[in-house]
TrEMBL record:
Residues 34-53 bind DNA. This is Transcriptional regulatory protein. Keywords: DNA-binding, Plasmid. GO terms for molecular function: DNA binding. It holds the Pfam family TetR_N. It comes from Tistrella mobilis (strain KA081020-065). It comes from the Bacteria. Residues 11-71 form the HTH tetR-type domain. InterPro entries: Homeodomain-like_sf, HTH-type_Tx_Regulator, HTH_TetR, Tet_transcr_reg_TetR-rel_C_sf.
Length: 232
């Protein structure tokens, strides 16, 4: 009994540290988040943090896996019973933005993790993309997404993820505040997604330049413009 109470207390302290670190990063950024500042925010002794995390980096590395997983679990629970890929996208989008609006520190925590906790950042986005691809594959197997192949689904997942990121930054984030996505923006997003995912237009035919050739031509043009300078 005493051992269980100790474990529960330890979990409570660890959770307090994680939440305090997340709030501090959300307000001040990783670079200004110290162990001392986290301890003060959590209302615990400085040394107590080191009973749970070896150092500041270990704390940083644990934040996105812990808090990001909770957000993904929240989204997953709300999309579990959706019947079509478009319904899942709409419900998932709304759940994603609703969660961020009530946990605004996650936006900065996630973005800055690319530089301050890069491994955790990469693993989080890999995990997010894997879940997206699995859902798209289920839809594809059920006859949705006409005109697309299995190889198209991973790039599709990253495009949808990227669109969400930019919509969040443009329409929802002001300082440390995150608002839900405006209804009109959601309507436009879902209209574009619906048309794209139900498209039956074939991909570019063999007469079109190969991707490699097109990319080489664009790189050459970009290098020429760069050498010319902005003024041309």
């Amino acid at each position: 009994m005493a051992g269980r109470r100790r474990n529960e207390r330890a979990e409570q302290v660890r959770e307090a540290i994680i939440q305090a670190a997340a709030r501090t990063i959300g307000e001040k950024g990783y670079d200004k988040t110290s162990i001392a500042r986290v301890a003060e925010e959590a209302g615990i002794a400085h040394g107590s943090v080191y009973l749970h995390f070896e150092n500041r980096q270990a704390l940083f590395d644990s934040l996105l896996p812990t808090l990001g997983r909770r957000m993904l679990d929240f989204i997953r629970r709300r999309t579990r019973h959706t019947r079509t890929v478009l319904e899942r996208e709409r419900v998932g989008l709304e759940a994603n933005f609703a969660y961020l609006s009530t946990h605004p520190h996650l936006h900065r925590l996630t973005n800055e993790a690319e530089f301050f906790a890069p491994e955790a950042h990469r693993e989080f986005y890999d995990h997010l993309a894997e879940g997206y691809v699995r859902a798209l594959r289920r839809a594809h197997a059920a006859g949705e997404l006409p005109g697309y192949t299995d190889a198209d689904l991973e790039p599709m997942a990253y495009m949808l993820m990227g669109a969400r990121e930019f919509l969040l930054s443009r329409y929802c984030v002001t300082g440390t505040e995150v608002r839900p996505l405006p209804q009109e923006v959601e309507r436009i997003y879902m209209t574009v997604v619906a048309r794209a995912l139900s498209a039956t237009t074939p991909l570019p035919d063999e007469a079109a330049p190969s991707p490699e050739h097109a990319a080489d031509a664009l790189r050459e043009a970009a290098e020429t413009d760069f050498g010319r300078g902005v003024g041309g």
